[in-house]
Amino acid sequence: MVGAFMFATGIENSSPTIENGRVRVDQMERCGHYDQWHLDFDLVQELGISFLRYGVPLYRTFPGPEKFDWSFADVTFEQLRARDIIPIADLCHFGVPDWIGNFQNPEFPALFAKYAFAFANRYPWVQLYTPVNEMYICAQFSAAYGWWNERLRSERSFVTALKHIVKANVLAMHEILKIRPDAIFIQSEASEYFHAENPRAIKPAEIMNAKRFLSLDLNYGRRVSSEMYEFLLDNGMTRNEYHFFLHHQLKHHCIMGNDYYVTNEHRVAADGKTYPSGEVFGYNEITRQYHERYKLPVMHTETNLNQGPKGDEAVYWLWKEWANVLRVRNSGVPIVGFTWYSLTDQMDWDSALREENHHVNPLGLYDLNRKIRPVGRAYKQLIEDWRTVLPTQSLCLQVPVELPSQQPSLRSKKLRDEIRRADQATGQGMEQDNWQNQTTSE
C-alpha cells in the first residue's frame, strides 16, 4: 500500500473543439506526447513522482456507439503499470467525440457511463479516477462564454451543459464502482473567488460566488441555496433532475481535488463584468472555504505559472503554492497531495485554446524538447525534501491506494468486498436502471 503524500504531475490532455467544431485542439498531439510518451514516462520517474494525472482523449478511444479503440491506451497504461506509476485516470477533459456532438446532448451522460464501465473493465487495476475534469469550467467555457464545443452564450445553455456533465460524472462513478468497489474519485475542479470592486458590485459578486459551487454541490448531493435552486429551475433543470443528484451522490468515495492558478480570482464590476484580480486570498483561504462546505479530504490537483523573463517566476510560484499547502495542512484540513500541471509545456493556453496559434506556453516542468526547466529541478528537490518529513499520523496519509504491481491482491479483494457490502447496506449499491432511467428530457 502507498501511504505517502501524493506528489503528482499530469500529461495535459485537453481536447475541445473550436471554430464551430472544425478544429480539434488535442494537447497530447500538439505537445508531442503521442510520439514521445515513453520519454515522458521516463521524465516522471526522473522527478521521483509516483502519481500521474493521465488519460487518453475521449474522442480517440470512443469513436462510435459501442465502439472502443484501446490501441494507444493499452500500450501506455501497461507501461504505467509496469513502472509502478499510479495513474489518476482522466476520462473526459473538455471534449467529446464528434458523433456525440457537445455537452448539450442529453444522451451524453448515459453514453459516457458506458465508456467509463468499459475503461474500468479493461484496466481493473486502475483505482484513482477523475471521470470528468473541471466540470464547472467545462460548462462555463463551452456554454456560457461560447469559446469551445457548442459555443453557446446563455444561462440556459450553461445549466444544460452543467447538468449533463455532472450527471455523466456521477453515472461514471457508479459504473466504475461495479468493477472497483474501492475506487477513489479525485474531482479536479477550479477553485474560484469573485471580489466586488465597489458596493454596487456586491450582489453580482455574491451570485458568482454561489454559482462557483454548483458543479460540486450537484456532484456531492448538497442542497443548493434557494437562489441557486431558482436559477437552475428557471434555466431548464427539472425537479426530478435536481433530485437525481441528491439521491445518487457518492461523496464517501471522493477526494475534493481543487485547482488554483493566479487567474482563479476575479474582480467584479457593478454591471457584472469580471476582470483578473491576480492572487488576493490565495490557495489556503479559498481551499478553506471549499473544505468547510464539503468536509472532504483535499488534493491540490493543478497549478502552474509561466517561467517568466527572469526564469525564476515559476519557481517562486511553486514555493508559494507549497507554503499554502502546508498552511492548509497545519490548519487541520486533511490534504492528500499536490500537483504541478503539467509535465511539459502546453500550447495556446494563453488564448484559453480559443485560437490555433501554435504558441508555446512555458508552464511545464520540462519544455517541449523534454529539457528540464528550473521549476522542474525545484519540484524534484521539493519532493526529495518533503517526502518523508510530512507527519505520518494524519488520516489523509492512510488513503488505501496500492501500487499497480501489487494488484490484484487478496487484500484488495477483501477490501472491495467490504466496501460493496457497506454500499449495499447504505443503499448505494443500486442497479443501473434505477438511476440511469431518470431522463433529462421531461
**Gyration radius, rounded:** 21 Å
Strands side by side in the biggest sheet: 1-4-5-6-7-9-12-13
Q: What is the name of the CATH topology?
A: TIM Barrel
Provide mean pLDDT, rounded.
91
Number of helices: 16
Helix content range of the residues, please? 40-55%
CATH H level, superfamily name: Glycosidases
CATH class: Alpha Beta
| Anisotropy-based shape | globular
Helix and strand content put the structural class at: alpha/beta
CATH architecture: Alpha-Beta Barrel
Poorly predicted regions: 391-397, 428-442
Total domains, how many? 1
Distance between the termini: 46 Å
Number of strands: 15
Strand content: 5-15%
**Largest beta-sheet details:** 8 strands, parallel, barrel
Write the layout of secondary structure elements.
Elements: E1 6-10, E2 17-18, E3 23-24, H1 27-30, H2 33-46, E4 51-54, H3 58-61, H4 71-83, E5 86-92, H5 108-122, E6 128-132, H6 135-143, H7 155-179, E7 184-190, E8 193-196, H8 202-211, H9 214-219, H10 226-234, H11 239-247, E9 254-259, E10 265-268, E11 274-276, H12 282-294, E12 298-302, H13 313-330, E13 335-340, E14 346-347, E15 360-361, H14 374-386, H15 410-425, H16 432-436
Parallel strand pairs: 1-4, 1-13, 4-5, 5-6, 6-7, 7-9, 8-10, 9-12, 12-13
Antiparallel strand pairs: 2-3, 10-11, 14-15
Helix pairs in contact: 2-4, 5-7, 6-7, 12-13
